[in-house]
Amino acid sequence: MSWTAFLKGVSDLAPGLLDGLAPPATAADLRALVAALNGPLPEDVHQVLATHNGQRAGHRILFGLTLMSAQDIARHARSVAHALEREGPVPVEDPDSRTQAYEPNPHHVPLFTDNTGNFLGFDLAPSASGVWGQVVIFGLDLPRPRVVADSFHTLFEELSAELRQGNCLIREAGGYSSMSWKPGVGSALSEILL
């Protein structure tokens, strides 16, 4: 599985980045998340959460992003549902043609967060040209949601290849390790995941 391969690559580069990963989500946690989302999880997302149900505060395994727990994801889904009830959807200017053109979008579900309102997640209701479960970046600092991969499986395979090619650095800040791109790396992923 690509999540496991990604974790191995991270461990080879900097084992400290794996510190703070939580134990697996329970079956009850995953059922509650599926209920909150009103639908199934993509298999690759299920496998991530069934391996690690989030990450402790301060730890950032993926380019400054923290893995969210099933409970935090469900809380976010409820928050978006409440926002839509109060305010309704807002059209997005110049949308990615593979996503639906409004925010907040209850079908954009976070898996990773920067803890400032920005997310890397998955899309449970793409447009006709999108793919169910596609990976999207979205949030407060982003003018529009953007598709970054067809699946987390694909994204983790690409990230594993970047790790093997030596395109990543580990930085220490505030007692925590975080991953960043080497200066001058021209990967398409380096433009998306800062």
Order of helices and strands: HHHEHEEEEEEHEEH
Walk across the major sheet and give the strand order: 1-4-5-6-7
Assembly context of the chains = single chain
Structural class estimated from helices and strands = alpha+beta
Sequence stretches where pLDDT stays below 50 over 5 or more residues: none
Strand content: 15-25%
Shape label: globular
Helical fraction equals: 25-40%
Cα separation of the termini: 24 Å
- Tell me about the biggest sheet? 5 strands, antiparallel
Radius of gyration: 16 Å
Describe the overall structure:
The chain contains 6 helices and 9 strands; from the N terminus they run αααβαββββββαββα. A hairpin with a 2-residue loop joins β8 and β9. Strands 1-4-5-6-7 form a 5-stranded antiparallel β-sheet. Strands 2-3 form a two-stranded antiparallel sheet. A two-stranded antiparallel ribbon has the order 8-9. The protein is of the alpha+beta class and 194 residues long. 35% of the residues are buried.
Question: In a nutshell, what does this entry contain?
Answer:
The chain is of the alpha+beta class and 194 residues long. The protein has six helices and nine strands.
